[in-house]
Amino acid sequence: MSDGANQSLEIYCGSSPPRAVDILKNLSVSSIILYSVLTLMTLVANLVYFEEVIYLLRNVPATNRRTTIMWVSGVSSVVATTSCVGMFIPLASMITDLTTVVYFAIAFHKFQEMMIEEFGGDEAFLKRFENTPMTFSTGPCCCCCPCLPTAKTSRRLMFLLKLGTFQLAFLRPVLMIFTLVLWVNGTFIPDDFSSSGPALWINISLGVSTVFALWSLSIVFYKVKGELKNQKIMPKFLLFKISFILNQLQALIINITASAGSIACAPPFSPVARGAYMNQQLLIMEMFLITLLSQIYYRRKYNGQETDETRPAVKPQNGRNDVHDTITEGESSNV
Question: Residue 244 in contact with residue 286, Cβ under 8 Å?
Fold first, then answer.
């Protein structure tokens, strides 16, 4: 092989992502078909989500409940969109990753709020579960600690649980913006996990913050999952966790595999860039399926009788059931 060819291969197999023009020039017929199908999947996922937003605007009152549902149900379409952009423009992968992690961080807090809003808000939630214990032996922190003491459901405890997810919604965007600034400055190297580099400490901080947010979310979920069974809270929670795991764990596994040399260089992609490219393609297909499944659980119509049956019962007081006397027309549309 000539020196020019060796130099060209060395440039192609470097650590920097390829340019969009280099990708488009090297597309084969099969690659063009693959890109077209994945782009179509992304477009359909966004159209499905926009249709769901229109449905929510028409059928759910302008309350915090409607806002939280829009945030949570939009996770899969946002990930599909950012993955599609990253697939076409690898140099923008840092920006697309920033958008995804910021959205996920906010969606964590919004999912917790959505569960509370299903009871009518903070006051209704506290009224329903007052004098009942809250269990802390849930994943990912304390699933193996059933001996942990319980605590009475109170306003203070509810504030702390909300703070557990809010800290991720606040801290993760701040750290990712800081990471972006360091990356533009050339100080941040994603593959450098030495103790002297910022990547290690930023990832540790994000990991600890995410674990606490998951714990706070799980505590509230296990408290309400029985009450919200008819609202399909279990499949909603599973879809949300699957989206998060696929977005985080799958990328981590592929990145480790590429760094270990198990993914070969394929010009114009280096092993790491090719691993990110494969992850983006997989995410588009996975998020497309999750978007379609989300429609089954987030877009549901009920008539008046079905709404009364699916509404969480309020705790009986003074020997009678304290059921809502009036239900507005908008609230009769349960999503």
Answer: no
